[in-house]
Every structure is written in C-alpha cells, then in structure tokens.
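User: Good morning. I'm curious how nicotinamide-adenine-dinucleotide would be positioned relative to this chain. Could you predict the structure with it bound?
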Amino acid sequence: MSFKTVAVIGAGQMGQGIAQVFATAGFNVILNDIDSAAIEKGLATLTRSLNKLADKELLSEDPAIIAGRITGSTDFSALVAAELVVEAATENEALKHKIFSQLDKICPASTVLASNTSSISITRLAAVTERPDKVVGLHFMNPVPLMKLIEVIKGLQTSEETYQSMLEVADKLNKTAVTSQDRPGFIVNRILMPMINEAIFTLYEGVGNAAEIDEAMKLGAAHPMGPLALADLIGLDTCLSIMQVLNEGFSDSKYRPCPLLKQMVDAGYLGRKTGRGFYQYD
Ligand SMILES: NC(=O)c1ccc[n+]([C@@H]2O[C@H](COP(=O)([O-])OP(=O)(O)OC[C@H]3O[C@@H](n4cnc5c(N)ncnc54)[C@H](O)[C@@H]3O)[C@@H](O)[C@H]2O)c1
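Assistant: Good morning! Here's the predicted structure, ligand included:
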C-alpha cells in the first residue's frame, strides 16, 4: 500500500504532532476537528514547532513548505480524499466507535483506518466497521515530533498487509515501531500508567508533595521527568480514561484510578492543556 494523503482526526496535542510528522515526511495532510478553534491552535502550535526545529537545522525543507502540506478542516466529508486516516480524538470508546462507524461509511473501501488510542481495544474498534482487516493501532508518543517510538497494534482482524503497511509508515516517519498485541493499554501504557497512578496515590496519601515525588523519581530512578509532571503533559483526563480501560479490561482492582485523579478531572484540572494540574502553567 502506498499512502500520499493522510487525514488526522483531532487537532489536540497528539493530532497536531501527528500532522506535523506526516507533513515533514512529505505526505499531504488533512487535519480535522469538530472545533475550528482547536484546528487554529493546532496549526499555530505545529508551525512554531517546525520553526524551532528549522532553527536547530533539524529539517531538510523550509518549514513553510512543510506546513503548506497541511489543510485544516471541520468538514468530515473532506476525509474521503485520504488513503490513510489516523484518529486522534479524545480518549473515549463510545466517541471512537462513532467516528470509526462514520469513517467506514464515507471512506473508500481501500482506506486504512488507524487509531492513536492509548488503551482502547483495536479489535472492538475494527468490529464497528465493514473493513475490520484495514483497522489498526498506530500509537504515537507525546511529544510526537521528538519521541522515536510508535506502537503498532494488531487487532484480531488486522490483516498482515495492513500491519506491514504501518511498519512502512513508521519507517517513512523516521520512527521505530514496536508491535503490541491488542490488550488493554498495549505495552507502554500497561506499564507507564499504573506507575503514574501510584505517584498520584503517593501524593494523595501525603507521602510527599508533588515536587518531592517528581524529584525522587528523576534522581532516584533516572526518569527524564517526574510522573506527576508527565501526567500533566499527557492530560489528566487521558490518564483517567486509560486507568478505567485497564481496570475494566483486566477486572483487576490493582488498576483502580486514584480518587484524587478523578477529583482533579471533575474540577477541570487537566494539566498543561488547561493551565492547571499537579502544577500551574502560564
Ligand atoms: N496525551 C498524550 O500524551 C497521548 C499520547 C498518546 C496517545 N494519546 C491518545 O491520543 C488521542 C488524543 O489525545 P490528546 O492528548 O491529543 O487529546 P486532546 O484533548 O489534546 O485533543 C483531542 C481533540 O479531539 C477533538 N475531538 C473530539 N471529538 C471529535 C470528533 N468527533 N471529531 C474530531 N475531533 C474531535 C477535540 O476537539 C480535541 O481537539 C487519545 O486517544 C489519547 O489517548 C494521547
């Protein structure tokens, strides 16, 4: 399979980064969101990111040429032009099922439908479509332009051809692919998110304050950033959603989300994206 035009659904922190790396690799990109303000913000953020990379001489083309390959659109029907769709909308299974079902209706039968979900079953997403063999997980890491890994997730129905085409895409994006079977949280979040959740329990129980917990894990476990700062970067709503998927998916109470995490999401303290999480941001 060869892809020239890629649609990215969701222009949040992941969607904008995914659009950026595809455009940098020469693909034409349609960046879709239900919210036109999110598209404007996404395009502005990725343009700043491209300019920074150009200043560091890390781009082989003019950043304006790369950004020029990306078209923002709130029009869902514009996605028919894509040969590959990467869904990066909010981490909510019902929402993703709706999006996949709609995509299946409008996209040509040959279009591959990939999800950037952090934890939701690719097998169940595939099952809402009439092309389950062409549904696959393509899980980018945050921040997308800097992180080398892509997890490629095979649903039970994903064909070998679709899977191989994602390995080729990862290669074209200059990323390293690791394959995961379709289990809740895949590999990275199965391991990472319980660690973050435990850090939140550590704060909740007053074992240490946020700065102490993060400092302890940076200096004591050689993590490049502390787990609470990382939770703020990921988004606390996304962290909660992943813990809920692990908790329900494994029916094991060791994955129960910390009550403080739930309370912070209820309060709208979602981390960097809302300016307040475990830390305050400008
Ligand atoms: N945040 C991370 O560190 C991270 C890392 C890897 C994967 N992910 C996954 O990426 C996805 C997006 O996460 P994010 O952090 O970018 O979230 P975000 O909250 O920053 O952005 C989500 C975007 O989706 C848009 N959206 C919601 N419903 C939509 C619809 N029906 N059609 C089009 N757009 C819609 C929202 O308007 C918003 O702009 C989630 O599945 C998440 O689990 C997140």
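Residues 5-181 form a domain with the Rossmann fold fold (CATH 3.40.50.720). The longest strand covers residues 135-140.
Let me know if you'd like a different ligand tried.
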